[in-house]
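Run log // design_07
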């Protein structure tokens, strides 16, 4: 088993689950604005169960404290045999409703595992400690599944929305060096502007316009970090990524990255000067 815990800022992210495992993901606090995973909002007593090979798109509109437990797929199948007959794993990504007290116990066990790793990491190197911890987590998962757990049905429209967003992402990845606009996506995917808007709202919680704008800002940020400093670079990068109003570009850039474009350039220039002054720059010991 592998336990992961993290606190993340507001985000939209995509990822996948490695073959042969299952991953149970859950919030560690009651969210005021629930995170959305593959179009489903995940409440305080709910978890996402993702099987190997699944693709995941998640959106959190606020900082999120979460944990995940990865276990071999045969073990999940064994534990699911303890669950009520109506609870059977369906689909690659499912929303699982847990009994509140069992959800709290499982979340507490995951948090305690992380605390143990932080405070006494050497203990986890002993077979007895690691084995006992794994057995305890196994028992908590089994108890959570066996205590009135049930899968929440996914609206049929969500599946279509996921397919549209996945196709849009593939198109953007194929053209990662240039801005992509809503009209291009609609034409390439043969979908109406309303259909594209509804799909992005359902899956990532924002409009295609907002999503593509964030993407263009990320591309501009990368360009500012990678290119040599010049007085006109901010203007050329902004125009090259479809931002025609420099004042609006600077405002939106600072809102996303916490600094102005010119400050990013200054940081890059300072970093380059620091490397130039470092001892042995350009030399290698033999």
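design_07 sequence
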């Amino acid at each position: 088993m592998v336990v992961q815990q993290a606190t993340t800022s507001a985000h939209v992210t995509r990822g996948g689950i490695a073959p042969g495992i299952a991953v149970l993901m859950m919030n560690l606090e009651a969210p005021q604005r629930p995170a959305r995973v593959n179009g489903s909002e995940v409440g305080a007593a709910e978890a996402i169960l993702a099987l190997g090979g699944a693709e995941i798109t998640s959106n959190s509109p606020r900082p999120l404290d979460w944990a995940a437990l990865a276990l071999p797929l045969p073990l999940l199948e064994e534990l699911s045999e303890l669950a009520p007959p109506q609870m059977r794993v369906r689909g690659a990504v499912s929303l699982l409703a847990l009994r509140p007290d069992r959800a709290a116990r499982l979340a507490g066990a995951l948090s305690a595992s992380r605390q143990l790793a932080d405070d006494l990491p050497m203990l986890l190197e002993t077979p007895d400690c690691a084995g006992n911890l794994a057995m305890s987590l196994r028992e908590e998962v089994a108890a959570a599944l066996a205590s009135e757990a049930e899968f929440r049905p996914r609206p049929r429209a969500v599946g279509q929305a996921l397919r549209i967003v996945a196709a849009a992402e593939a198109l953007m990845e194929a053209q990662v060096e240039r801005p992509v606009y809503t009209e291009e996506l609609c034409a390439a995917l043969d979908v109406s502007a309303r259909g594209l808007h509804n799909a992005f709202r359902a899956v990532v919680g924002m409009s295609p316009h907002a999503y593509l704008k964030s993407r263009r800002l990320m591309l501009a940020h990368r360009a500012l970090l990678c290119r040599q400093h010049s007085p006109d670079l901010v203007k050329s990068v902004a125009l090259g990524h479809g931002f025609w109003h420099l004042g609006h570009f600077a405002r939106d850039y600072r809102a996303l990255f916490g600094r102005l474009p010119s400050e990013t350039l200054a940081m890059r220039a300072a970093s380059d000067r620091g490397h130039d002054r470092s001892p042995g720059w350009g030399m290698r010991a033999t």
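Residues 277-286 have pLDDT under 50 and may be disordered.
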